[in-house]
Hints:
The chain has 13 helices and twelve strands. The protein has helices at 11-20, 63-73, 87-92, 95-116, 154-173, 195-204, 224-237, 254-269, 273-277, 298-304, 312-325, 327-335, 337-346, and strands at 2-6, 28-33, 53-57, 77-80, 124-130, 177-182, 184-186, 209-212, 218-223, 243-246, 251-253, 280-283. The strands form three sheets. It has a seven-stranded parallel β-sheet with strand order 3-2-1-4-5-6-10, with helices on both faces. The protein has a three-stranded mixed β-sheet with strand order 7-9-11. The protein has a two-stranded parallel ribbon with strand order 8-12. Helix 6 packs across helix 8 (254-269). The radius of gyration is 20 Å and the shape is globular. It starts with a strand and ends in a 6-residue tail after the last helix.
Amino acid sequence: MNIVVTGGAGFIGANFLNLLVPRHPEHRFVNVDKLTYAANPKSLAALEEGDNYVLERVDIADAEAVDRLFEAHAPDLVVHFAAESHVDRSILGPGEFVRTNVEGTFTLLEACRRHWGGKTDGKLFHHVSTDEVYGSLGATGMFTEETRYDPSSPYSASKAASDHLVRAWGRTYGLPFKLTNCSNNYGPLQFPEKLIPLMILNAVERKKLPIYGTGENVRDWLYVTDHCEAIWKVIQEGATGETYNIGGHNEVMNIDVVDRICQLVAEETGADPAELLGLKEFVKDRPGHDMRYAIDASKIEKDLGWTPAETFETGMRKTVRWYLQNEEWVRDVRSGAYKDWIEANYGDREAS
């Protein structure tokens, strides 16, 4: 099987490829990535020498480039991770989120429709989305697959639009698809603009730990490899045309996340936990900040037998240790040095 993975040099996509490529030599994986600021091919260095992996630098919103890609690699399966995903950035500059998340998804769907035509047996478009499309919960309740969409940010609105496009292409054109909506991911290879890696690195460097509002916003935390295993489970065994929510069973307030990071960094480095906890700083909340997310993952658990392997405690300890043990990766990302490496190795590369 030829598998196109969009956004495979980003956080979740890279973990997906690192997990699946060595496990499935019978499949050929094509990593399709624009290689923007949050994408790092060095995260996939272990795969470069393999026979069943290739990286193509392609903007998914460029219809001609995507057509060339489909001609070159004839995908049977498209796993669509590619997205602008940082809420703060979407508030400051929503245009790129609409282009990548909405126009990019449209371009991929149209490429599938053209190149697969009526011969869709064995073909699949798997769309990876977020629980943020559902909006905000109060103190009780959980998001199910039937929850009404109510996005709050330009990011979540763009993802909601892409979800609707995928379902519409399925209903109108018969395009075979599956869709997953996940809770907040964390783990290795996450760009350090996101809460957990930012707090880990700031604690190590004794920098302030900025927390929005009162820190009482609640998120359901999902370890990234659990998410990747769930996606593969849905691809292999899920029903075509169905949506599956993926959650980690770990509802934690942001302030408690930061406190636990301080404790873990102290344990792993010998630092004084009181000193790290003293770095916390409450800052002005961002506009439209959803109060609580909680995923009801009973459908995927009942229908497909998937449950997360990591607890919040085990996943957080693994995450802290990974950032402490991978200083070169962190240094390259934070300094921007990896961008020079990308241009030297992938600057002129196109699908061929």
